[in-house]
Design brief:
Elements lengths: L2 E6 L5 H14 L15 H9 L2 H8 L3 E5 L2 H4 L6 H21 L4 E3 L1 E2 L12 H9 L6 E3 L19 H10 L3 E3 L11 H19 L2 H4 L5 E3 L10 H10 L5 H4 L4 E4 L5 H10 L5 E2 L11 E2 L4 E2 L3 H7 L5 H15 L1 H9 L3
Parallel strand pairs: 1-2, 2-3, 4-5, 5-6, 6-7, 7-8, 8-9
Antiparallel strand pairs: 10-11
Helix pairs in contact: 6-7, 14-15
Length: 342
């Protein structure tokens, strides 16, 4: 199978954005809070947006299954208070769950959390539990910076995050470390903010000893790990300076990277530097980069082509990247596929 572990509902029906605009206005002191019951999205609305977009491209590119979560840039945890985030997370999670129900062979749910700046991470537990136990989520997106670029949250190694980690280990689901929209205009959301956050998350983990307390916890750092593979020597040297073990022993039993890297040299670097067992196939489709590369004639985010073409993987290693690693890192996904006879 070709399992894409990183997809977002970026093509959700326009009604969702219109409802969110009303909620944002309310959060800014303008008007009343919109009623979630007033948001009407039909199954046909969902089918139309998926069949003409994600599903069409999956079929064209040969991808079998996508772990599908709410649009990351729409999480925007810095907008409003905890109640606003709780309502918004519930709506978005319910919507992606409907996608997986309508297309059970092609999509499986990942969830967002109702994080809010300054709030105890434990406030996200009820929605995490609901998403897994009622909606069938096999991963969550965990925002290390709910403030939207101000970085006011404690590092991921801080004990305040432990209630989330305890539940992730209990449920056997990984967290994708994924920020959302930047509230600072000098940062481009899907450019420097996303990639900088990926790098920051890795460095936070390097400085700490989180996995001594949670040896079974799994994190996925998206977008190829930001700057991490390119600067692997720097991080190895910093680990030595900080008295940490080699990165393979310190982090790579627990930290994984996806293939959302949009050119062949980038995938070649990733697959040369990072052990194959720590690489998960992903495209982020339809996401940050949606155009066709004029140099190749193919979409930038058609990452399967790069994985197929890299000389750094054997056929057996490619199978791990495309399927085997995902089934190992996402046990609930593996069990769901096994139940389908796959």
């Amino acid at each position: 199978m070709i399992i894409d572990i990183h997809g977002h509902y970026t093509t959700a029906p326009s009604q969702l954005g219109a409802w969110r605009d009303l909620q944002i206005a309310f959060a800014n002191g303008q008007g009343e809070a919109p009623d979630p019951a007033a948001l009407h999205i039909s199954d046909d609305d969902i089918r139309e947006t998926i069949e003409a977009n994600q599903l069409k491209l999956m079929n064209e590119r040969g991808s079998d299954l996508t772990i599908f979560s709410p649009r990351a840039s729409f999480m925007a945890h810095h907008i409003g208070d905890l109640a606003v985030s709780q309502t918004w997370a519930r709506i978005c999670n319910d919507l992606v769950a409907r996608v997986s129900e309508l297309f059970p062979d092609r999509f499986i749910m990942g969830a967002m959390l109702p994080q809010s700046p300054g709030e105890d991470p434990a406030t996200s537990l009820p929605e995490l539990v609901r998403a897994v136990e009622e909606l069938g989520a096999v991963e969550i997106n965990l925002n290390p910076d709910p403030s939207g670029g101000l970085w006011t949250a404690p590092a991921l190694t801080d004990r305040s995050w432990y209630p989330i980690y305890e539940k992730l280990v209990e449920y056997e689901i990984p967290a994708m470390i994924h920020v959302s929209t930047s509230c600072k205009p000098q940062f481009h959301t899907t450019g420097d903010h996303y990639l900088g956050a990926d790098t920051t998350a890795f460095m936070q983990l390097l400085k700490g000893d989180l996995f001594r307390d949670f040896p079974d916890l799994k994190f996925v750092i998206p977008h190829g790990g930001g700057a991490v593979p390119y600067h692997w020597g720097r991080f190895r040297g910093l680990a030595m300076a900080l008295g940490k073990p080699e990165l393979e022993d310190h982090l790579l039993n627990n930290v994984f990277f996806d293939t959302c890297v949009y050119h062949q040299p980038g995938i070649n670097l990733l697959t040369e530097v990072i052990p194959t067992e720590n690489i998960l196939f992903a495209s982020e489709m339809i996401g940050a980069v949606r155009d066709i590369d004029p140099r190749t004639g193919h979409y930038f985010d058609d990452t399967k082509r790069y994985v197929d073409a890299t000389p750094n993987l054997t056929d057996a290693e490619r199978e791990l990247v495309f399927e085997g690693n995902a089934r190992r890192v996402y046990p609930r996904l593996d069990r769901a596929l096994t139940a389908q006879g796959k």
